[in-house]
Design a protein that fits this description.
35 strands; flat; nine-stranded mixed beta sheet; single chain; 414 residues; ten-stranded antiparallel beta sheet; Immunoglobulin-like; mainly beta; Jelly Rolls
Length: 414
């Protein structure tokens, strides 16, 4: 009898304990999922997106991506602001990119406006009327690319460049730029077409066609000239300075197609963005597709080339290639520290630190040079919790740091 009582009590006790354990496990799992969900939403800016949806005006263009120094001048206040992920643009606003800046804006008609470095664009119109959407931008300086997809008949997307108004047709990919050499504008259509109006006369520029605007006149259309293809020095190659006076760099390139009366322009820069104050050499016109530069001092360089035909059409620049000049025997460690990380929004961060003056700092495919006091800053995008920072000098020394984006500390050095 006593054994039966004990057994019953034991079973009841076990049932209570088991239910308690289940409840505890459920609570832990629920709280973990809740905390994890909140952290994930915060990382993905879901809370920010909800705030943005209520704060962004209906007819505003949305900044989809940006890098480097990009600024917006507000039409109403004339205030100049540095862009972040939450920045938007309205009719009347001016977008300016500096030498290392570029941005992509989604307009209200679904088109994308890509703004290149050293460019100034004014948003003339961004409004919805009678079911249609009007987008109009003016290129004051630099270069933009505009892409449209399917567009209703009552939607207008217009780009002003110099004396021309260019209405983009549906399914169009077009490039517009100003040409300081001729004080004119250039239009390139790689897909679709545009209706160009100059002085009241409308001309349709179609796929793979080029036309320039000068002195209130649209010049004859031509087939687009492709950018030349670099040959040497190879991309990411190293040239050895054996004499102590620098190395000789022999540049060669070839045309992607036959160009009548071709002449070339060559640029060599310390910056991948070819900012004016970073250009080491600009040589034009060159009659032949080659050029040799002697006594190039140790360092990292970028070069690009473009071609101009006998008719005056100039191609886009080719994609930059990189090369380095190094001295013999680089094996020293380069110290870097005083790390600072500023989250800009989403997966975009500004990373700052200090190293030896003149050192090259590379992060996520972007690079900069340490100032006279050794300080540097780069804006990068990363969806990971860590990023790799490479620091090098002109003697071939190089040190790589694994940097935590959460704690701003170097977790590994190699």
């Amino acid at each position: 009898m006593e054994n039966n009582k004990y057994r019953k009590f034991y079973i009841d006790w076990w049932n209570i304990k088991r239910s308690t354990i289940y409840s505890a496990v459920f609570t832990v799992v629920f709280l973990s999922a809740l905390i994890g969900g909140i952290w994930y939403a915060w990382k993905k800016d879901w809370f920010l997106a909800a705030t943005e949806a209520t704060n962004i005006p209906q007819d505003a263009g949305k900044l989809m991506s940006f890098e480097g120094d990009v600024r917006i001048i507000r039409a109403k206040t004339r205030e100049t602001i540095l862009v972040t992920k939450t920045t938007y643009v309205l009719a009347g606003d001016t977008i300016q990119t500096q030498g290392d800046g570029r941005a992509t804006v989604q307009m209200i008609d679904g088109s994308t406006l890509a703004i290149r470095p050293n460019s100034t664009v004014v948003i003339r119109d961004s409004s919805s009327l009678f079911g249609g959407k009007n987008v109009r931008v003016a290129l004051d300086d630099g270069q933009i690319n505009v892409k449209t997809e399917d567009q209703p008949a009552d939607t207008k997307n217009v780009v002003e460049v110099m004396e021309s108004e260019n209405r983009l047709l549906p399914q169009t990919d077009a490039s517009f730029n100003t040409n300081p050499a001729t004080n004119g504008g250039e239009i390139r259509i790689s897909r679709g077409g545009v209706e160009t109006n100059v002085g009241g006369q409308t001309t349709v520029i179609k796929e793979n066609e080029f036309a320039s605007v000068n002195n209130g006149k649209l010049n004859a259309k031509e087939k687009i000239i492709g950018a030349p293809k670099p040959v040497s020095p190879d991309n990411s190659s190293q040239l050895l300075d054996t004499s102590g006076r620098g190395a000789a760099a022999a540049f060669r390139w070839q045309n992607s197609e036959t160009v009548t009366g071709a002449n070339y322009a060559l640029q060599i820069s310390k910056s991948p963005y070819f900012a004016p104050d970073a250009i080491l050499l600009e040589k034009q016109p060159l009659a032949n597709p080659n050029y040799t530069l002697s006594d190039v001092p140790p360092g990292t360089y970028y070069w690009r080339v473009r071609v101009t035909s006998g008719s005056g059409q100039t191609s886009d620049w080719c994609e930059p290639w990189k090369f380095s000049v190094v001295k013999r025997g680089g094996s020293q460690t380069i110290q870097a520290g005083e790390w600072k990380i500023e989250p800009v929004g989403g997966t975009i961060y500004r990373i700052a630190g200090k190293t030896q003056p003149g050192a090259t700092v590379r992060i996520q495919g972007r690079e900069t040079f340490a100032q006279a006091d050794g300080s540097f800053m780069l804006q990068v995008s990363s969806s990971l919790s860590e990023t790799v920072v490479e620091v090098s000098d002109d003697r071939g020394n190089k040190t790589t740091y694994a940097l935590s984006l959460k704690t701003a500390t170097a977790v590994q050095k190699f």
